[in-house]
Amino acid sequence: MNKKVLFSIIGIIIIAGGALFGYRMLSSDSESESSNDNNLETKEVKRGSVNSSFSATGIVVSANQVDLNFDNPGELEDLKVTLNEKVGEYQDLASLDPTDTRLGWEVLESPIDGTVIYIGGKEGEKISTTNNSTSTTTMAGQIQTSGFMTIADLSDLQIEMSIDQNDISKVSKGQKVKITLDAIEDKEFSGKVVSIDPIPANDQNVITYTAHASIDKGASSLRLGMSADIELEYGKKDDVLIVPNDAIRDRNGRKMVMTVVDGRARPVEVQIGKADDNNTEITEGLKEGDEIVSGSFNMQQGSNGQNRSGSMMPFGRGGSRGGSRSFGPPH
Q1: Distance separating alpha carbons of residues 157 and 153, to the nearest angstrom
Q2: Residue 145 pLDDT > 50, yes or no?
Q3: Structural domains for the chain
Q4: H or E segment and range at residue 25
Q5: What's the half-sphere exposure (Cβ side, CA atoms, 13 Å) at 155?
Q6: Is there a contact between 224 and 140 (Cβ–Cβ < 8 Å)?
Q7: Contacts with 66 (C-beta within 8 Å, 6 or more apart), sequence order
Q8: What DSSP string describes 271-327?
């Protein structure tokens, strides 16, 4: 056998081996894509609402709470009330014998109807006039006080919220809130924002604003100082195109959705608007009634919408519209 014939045979063997290897690789890719994309769920693009929200933390406080102090230091002579006692407006609460003997006895009276939730001394003790803010546990719950005595209207409770500076621009008076409390399971309260403090608090360079929200009903089961989680709703949009959040994929900074047309699935770039916990608004790229893939799926296509074998991904015919569907093998 001469060398030319030998080289020809070797060349044929190499070409045949390469072709077989390539065929097996393509078959492997096709099987992998087919197995990865089976039983995918589809949904129709529809119109609906998105209701954006953010979360904050807070505590239960009285909407009308006053801290009372004597004008002068001295000895507490007559304590006329006890903790948790209900008092009326202008009722005498306590009297003090001033250290300065030139002054007469001083009487402390209540400026509101309410309940005594804190007393900072006993009869015979020396009382100062220093307004030291302190957090204390009382029969009514955990409170913040800066007086000798604190009176609160327990029939009018609110939620005091701490709002991050990045979210304060989303808060306005009258805004709806949803309230849950660790101490009261399986119950959600509703309310509205009633006030927003203009001056922020700075705690180790963490800037927050204080806001207060009313409680629509059911507040009688709440206690002062209970911790609360608050969801504040903002930016609600009605009658917009929406898709499930899990239908959207981020590819190199672009938002993509897999659409199904004539039994074939292909990626489509979309523009999105507002989103909530379940749905995202679509502003461009889809229309009402389009069929899309949602749920967990593996987007194998390249940026031109083709799979690795160069064809569009076909879609199986086995499921009902809006239910579980299956991809067939690529052509």
Answers
A1: 8
A2: yes
A3: 42-50+238-293 (2.40.420.20), 70-128 (2.40.50.100), 155-237 (2.40.30.170)
A4: helix 3-36
A5: 5
A6: yes
A7: 110, 111, 112, 114, 147, 150, 151, 152
A8: EEEEE-SSEEEEEES--TT-EEEESS------TTS--TTSS-EE--S-SPTTSEE--
Averaged pLDDT, 206-217: 94
**Rg, C-alpha atoms of the chain:** 35
Give the pLDDT confidence of 230-283 residue by residue, as tens digits. 999 888 889 999 999 999 999 999 999 999 988 888 999 999 998 888 999 999
Cα maximum dimension of the chain: 135
CB 200 within 8 A of CB 209: yes
CA 280 distance to own-chain centroid: 16
Report CA dihedral (215, 217, 219, 225) to the nearest 10 degrees. Answer: -20
- Torsion, Cα of 30, 32, 38, 40 (10° steps): -100
Using alpha carbons, list the distances in angstroms from residue 154 to 62, 133, 163, 214: 6, 21, 24, 13
Tokens for 221, please give them.
């089961």
Indicate the pTM of the whole model.
0.63
- Beta-sheet pairing, 206-214 with 201-203: antiparallel
CB 314, CB 327: distance < 8 Å: yes
